[in-house]
Design brief:
This protein has 286 residues and is an alpha/beta fold. Helices cover 38% and strands 17% of the residues.
């Protein structure tokens, strides 16, 4: 953790909804005039798409969830370097045709490494591995704010199926194969990270999602509730949150449940003061 160069990490599985959470953070950054540099976790994959496909053909349980399929020591070094000096570098993974047009690179490849812009207020990470802790790595010790995005698993699968079929052109069978391939690493690498996060946002549908592989659409916000769990509830004004978030209630001493349609408002109310505290502390030390 670094008072001079704070780091925010948003961790979630593929299809969890981390991109939507990033959009909320970006709104807060614009409104509060906070200058952020960004890391996309996919930019730290170890292999391009062609190489990864060849490796997976030879090893049926290999997936992008696996630490060895990613440059996690390099990611940890970026966290460490930014916390010390405000410097670092990143790159982008080219997912689709739109990305290929934007970056001028073929799909499934990477852009060149680029240094962060100087003078940023904070570093924002969004991806699969922002809080990995194992025998050789401890990424969780660097971020000043760690967010987990963890919908119940059937909903996560529905969201992934919808995204990969609609926007990336994959078949249902292809996405299902990816889900099955990733399960060991989901259990061993992804889930443990949510014990390190400061706040978890877990969306729970209130409609039937028993068979996610035939679902025709993603449950809407109004068809969901969101459980917000605080690792340390000290200092959280739950009475204020309940008064501002109609229909919310406390499920445990450290958890508030809100209607799904109130998620963006809840994030604004909860995260804005935390972000501004980090930024104001940094600016006082500048």
């Amino acid at each position: 953790m670094s008072a001079r160069h704070p780091i925010i990490s948003v961790t979630g599985s593929s299809g969890a909804g981390t991109t939507s959470v990033r959009n909320t953070f970006e709104q807060i950054f614009r409104r509060e005039d906070v200058s952020a540099v960004y890391i996309e976790g996919d930019g730290f994959h170890a292999f391009d798409r062609e190489t990864m496909h060849a490796m997976m053909a030879a090893e049926p349980t290999l997936s992008h969830f696996a630490p060895r399929a990613n440059l996690l020591p390099e990611l940890e070094e970026v966290f460490r370097t930014y916390g010390e000096s405000g410097r670092g570098r990143t790159r982008h993974y080219v997912h689709d045709v739109e990305d290929a047009a934007r970056y001028g690179r073929p799909q499934g490849s990477f852009t060149e490494w680029e240094d962060f812009a100087t003078g940023s207020d904070l570093l924002f990470y969004e991806g699969l591995h922002g809080c990995v802790v194992d025998q050789t790595l401890d990424l969780a010790r660097y971020p000043d704010l760690k967010i987990g995005v963890v919908p119940v698993i059937n909903l996560e699968w529905i969201q992934k199926l919808h995204r990969d079929r609609s926007f990336r052109g994959y078949s249902t069978d292809a996405v299902t194969d990816v889900i099955l391939r990733r399960m060991p690493d989901y259990v061993q690498t992804i889930c443990p990270q949510f014990s390190w996060t400061d706040i978890n946002f877990q969306r729970v549908p209130t409609v039937d999602t028993s068979n996610p592989f035939i679902a025709r659409w993603i449950p809407t916000a109004d068809e969901s509730m969101v459980v917000i769990r605080f690792k340390d509830p000290k200092g959280i004004d739950f009475s204020y949150l309940r008064s501002m978030l109609e229909g919310s209630f406390m499920s445990r001493a450290n958890s508030i449940v809100i209607p799904g349609g109130k998620l963006d408002l809840a994030m604004q109310l909860i995260l804005t003061p935390i972000i501004m505290q980090l930024v104001e502390r940094k600016r006082r030390l500048a």
